[in-house]
Design a protein that fits this description.
single chain; globular; four-stranded mixed β-sheet; 2 domains; UDP-n-acetylglucosamine1-carboxyvinyl-transferase, Chain
C-alpha cells in the first residue's frame, strides 16, 4: 500500500519509544539458541528478528527467511554446526541475488557441509550440520562484516574455539566489536588485534539477563526529522546508552554538522535543532556505519546541502542496490546526484518537487529515509508496509509527532 504524506510540521518535545536493536537482538537470538541460559529484554519487534526466532525454532526442513539478510548469514553459520540436523535455507528473489560465497567458503574450510541449490555463490543453501574440527580460517574482510560476525557467534560452540585471519581492509568494524562485546557479556574470552580475531570456546554459562539497547538505525530517521525542522525543535527517544555497542550511534556526532544536539539523560536522548548547518557541503566516510547513508543523503537534500559520502561499497548488495536507488528516487525530486561503486555525490540547491512517488524496492530504509521530506513537500511512499522489516511502529510514531502544515 502506498502512503500519501502531506506537508507537515514536527511537534516539538514529543517522546518516542523505540524497540531494541535488530543487530543486537539477532546476535543474541542465535547465542540464546546455543546457550538457553540467556534471558533477553527489550528485544527487537522487527520482521527480521521474528524471522530469526521462527527459523531457530524450526531447526529442520525448508526455512524461508524472505528479505532478512542478517538472518541468512547468521543462520548459515548456525545450522552448519548443528550436528545431525539438515536444512534448506532460502529467501526472496532479491535474497537469491545477494552473494554469500565468502561466508560459505570460510565454513567449508572449517569442515562444514554446504551445497548451493541454484546459482553458485548464492542462496538457497542445503546445509547438513556437523561437528567442525578445524579451528582456524582465513577470509576476506572488505565485503560484509556480517560474514565475520556469523563465524564469531558460533566460535564459542566449537571445541577449540576459532581463529579468524582477515584479508584486506575491514568493513563496519563497530558491528564486529558489537558481536565480541555480546560474547564477552556471556563470558566468552576473545582477542581482536590487527586483522586477527581469536575466540575461546565456552561450554557452559551461568544464567544471564541482557537488556537490548534501542535501535540507533531507527533513531536516524528522527535525527533527520529534527534536522529538517526549525531551530528549537526537539524530540525525546528511548532507550539509549551514551557508550553504545552500535556503530550507528555515530549519528549523535554526525548530526552536529546539521545543527542537531544530542543530550543523554536517564536512559533516553533529547535531540534538538540548535543552529543551521555548519557548511554547504557534508563530507564523510561511512564505511563503519553504511546503514545510515540513505538517511544522511536525504537530510542533505532536504536542507539544500551538497554531500560527498564514501565507504559505501556494501550498499550495492543490500535489500536493493541502495546507491542506484538513491540516485533514481532523489533525481525524481529534483536532485543532481552521481554515484560510483563506493561513493555518492550530491550537488547543493535545487527546488524540491511536489507529489513525487518514491519507490522503495522492498527496502525498509528507503521508505523511512525519505519520509522526513514530508516536512518540505507532499510526498508518496510506495509499498509503505516494508518498514516492518526493522521498525513496525514507524508510521504510528510518525503520526504521533506530526501535524499537517495548513499554510504550506
Amino acid at each position: 500500500m502506498d502512503k500519501k504524506l502531506p506537508k507537515s510540521v514536527l511537534i516539538s518535545e514529543k517522546k518516542i519509544e523505540i524497540s531494541g536493536s535488530k543487530s543486537e537482538t539477532n546476535r543474541l537470538l542465535l547465542l540464546q539458541a546455543i546457550y538457553p541460559e540467556i534471558i533477553m529484554k527489550n528485544a527487537s519487534e522487527s520482521d527480521d528478528s521474528e524471522v530469526m526466532r521462527k527459523a531457530l525454532q524450526q531447526q529442520s526442513g525448508k526455512i524461508d527467511i524472505h528479505h532478512a539478510g542478517t538472518a541468512m548469514r547468521f543462520l548459515t553459520a548456525f545450522f552448519a554446526v548443528q550436528e545431525g540436523k539438515e536444512v534448506i535455507l532460502t529467501g526472496s528473489t532479491r535474497m537469491k541475488q545477494r552473494p554469500i560465497h565468502i561466508l560459505v567458503q570460510a565454513l567449508q574450510d572449517l569442515g562444514a557441509e554446504i551445497l548451493y541449490l541454484e546459482n553458485e555463490g548464492y542462496p538457497p543453501l542445503h546445509i547438513k550440520g556437523k561437528s567442525l574440527g578445524i579451528s582456524e580460517v582465513t577470509m576476506l574482510a572488505n565485503v560484509s562484516s556480517q560474514y565475520i560476525s556469523a563465524l564469531l557467534l558460533i566460535a564459542p560452540f566449537l571445541s577449540k574455539g576459532l581463529k579468524i585471519k582477515l584479508q584486506g581492509e575491514l568493513t563496519s568494524v563497530p558491528y564486529i566489536k558489537m558481536t565480541l562485546s555480546l560474547l564477552s557479556e556471556i563470558g566468552v574470552s576473545s582477542d581482536f588485534e590487527g586483522n586477527t580475531i581469536c575466540v575461546q570456546p565456552l561450554k557452559n554459562i551461568q544464567k544471564k539477563e541482557i537488556t537490548v539497547e534501542s535501535d540507533w538505525s531507527s533513531a536516524s530517521y528522527w535525527y533527520s526529522f529534527v534536522a529538517l525542522s526549525d531551530i528549537g525543535t526537539s524530540l525525546k527517544l528511548s532507550s539509549y546508552k551514551e557508550n553504545s555497542l552500535q556503530g550507528d550511534s555515530i549519528l549523535s556526532e554526525i548530526y552536529t554538522f546539521f545543527g542537531v544536539e544530542t543530550i543523554f539523560s536517564n536512559n533516553e536522548i533529547i535531540i534538538r535543532k540548535t543552529k543551521l548547518a555548519k557548511d554547504l557541503i557534508f563530507k564523510y566516510d561511512l564505511r563503519n556505519a553504511p546503514d545510515i547513508a540513505q538517511t544522511i543523503v536525504v537530510t542533505c537534500f532536504g536542507l539544500g546541502l551538497a554531500c560527498e559520502i564514501s565507504g559505501l561499497h556494501t550498499l550495492k548488495i543490500k535489500e536493493t542496490d541502495r546507491l542506484e536507488a538513491l540516485k533514481t528516487e532523489l533525481s525524481k525530486l529534483g536532485a543532481k546526484i552521481e554515484v560510483s561503486d563506493k561513493a555518492l555525490f550530491l550537488k547543493s540547491g535545487g527546488v524540491i518537487r511536489q507529489n513525487v512517488s518514491i519507490e522503495t524496492y522492498n527496502d525498509h530504509r528507503m521508505a523511512m529515509a525519505f519520509t522526513p521530506l514530508m516536512l518540505k513537500t507532499d510526498i508518496i511512499i510506495c509499498d509503505s508496509e516494508v518498514v516492518s522489516k526493522s521498525y513496525p511502529n514507524f508510521w504510528k510514531d510518525v503520526e504521533s509527532v506530526l501535524i499537517q502544515d495548513e499554510i504550506g
